[in-house]
Design brief:
Length: about 325
């Protein structure tokens, strides 16, 4: 069984949807681009989203096998300021991002040009082009792939939450009681593993589309080479903007130096940003400067890179050694 088949959306299911008309979600060149590792982006047409939640359910169905299964009771942490983050008894929460819910829908009501609009906004990782989470992870557990996916390697993540603290949208979420820290330094390490959307990397790398894209009944999302997605986004934004600046209707093209999650809204983005009730697990839509262009973060990245590379290698080797030892024990008991 492949990784893609472990989830709820298989290649067979994908092909069935394509035959039914779902090919419109896949822009020309996407399959070849994904297999070649070219940068892919997704476009969210917010004028179409009805907030049905099918994308949320599809994400859980596809990625549920990746969710954490923590060991309890949790080890006591030193220093005590490292707080427990436990979502294992609240796995059905969909109103915010959690280690068990990588996609949430925010709903706002705004007035624009004499009309009232209810706008539903699917939110997940923005998959930045130059992500601070990947550049600044001290353990090298987070990385950006050539196809634009930003992934956390849960095998070596120690849950230190550096990725969350440097993310402009506070996307990654931690679950205590799971991961490599339990085998290394259960009382002193990072206290778990960080989780977030990985854009169904196993599907994308196989030339398919993420589950949230393929399962949407309204075709809210499209995925394709980034330059094609941006062209499509600007064309759509012009239809909403009229004589106004079309850039006011697009979010994600330049935020944090550029992302691979592009939103096009039927109303100006600043109206959405003002109406959003942002908070823990609910990202904002405010303007975001390029964090990796700031001297502070550039210096941190320069110092972290060589250490993170070595750390990632050691942790990967350690994780494989521990896994091998566990398998040997299981075989011995059998």
């Amino acid at each position: 069984m492949t990784d893609g088949e472990k989830g709820g959306v298989s290649r067979r299911g994908f092909l069935k949807r394509v035959a039914a008309g779902g090919a419109a979600m896949l822009l020309p060149g996407t399959v070849s681009a994904s297999r070649q590792g070219d940068e892919l982006a997704s476009l969210h047409d917010l004028s179409k989203c009805i907030g049905c939640g099918e994308c949320v359910s599809a994400c859980t169905e596809q990625n549920g096998y990746k969710y954490p299964e923590p060991q309890k009771p949790f080890p006591k942490m030193y220093p005590s300021r490292v707080k427990v983050a436990d979502w294992s008894d609240r796995r059905d929460v969909e109103e915010r991002l959690t280690p068990y819910n990588w996609l949430t829908i925010q709903t706002v009501e705004v007035d624009w040009q004499g009309q009232s609009y209810e706008i539903n906004i699917p939110r997940r990782c923005m998959h930045c082009q130059n992500p601070p989470c990947a550049n600044l992870c001290p353990w090298g557990a987070c990385a950006r792939e050539n196809n634009g996916v930003v992934r956390i390697n849960t095998d070596i993540c120690l849950g230190g939450s550096k990725c969350k603290s440097v993310c402009p949208w506070d996307i990654p979420q931690r679950q205590t009681g799971v991961g490599l820290y339990l085998k290394l330094m259960p009382g002193y390490a990072g206290n778990g593993v960080m989780y977030k959307c990985d854009r169904c990397f196993e599907l994308v790398s196989d030339g398919d589309v993420p589950a949230c894209v393929s399962e949407c009944p309204e075709e809210v999302q499209f995925i394709g080479p980034r330059h094609d997605i941006l062209a499509r986004a600007h064309g759509l934004a012009k239809t909403f903007a009229g004589d106004l600046d079309e850039n006011e209707f697009i979010y994600g093209e330049y935020e944090n130096g550029g992302t691979n999650t592009i939103y096009v809204s039927p109303v100006p983005i600043p109206l959405l940003a003002k109406a959003l009730e942002a908070g823990p697990g609910n990202p904002h839509m405010d303007p975001v400067k390029d964090m990796m262009a700031q001297d502070e973060f550039l210096g941190m990245a320069a110092l972290a890179a060589p250490v993170a590379g070595v750390a990632a290698g050691l942790l990967t080797a350690g994780a494989k050694f521990i896994k091998s030892g566990q398998q040997d024990k299981e075989e011995t008991h059998e």
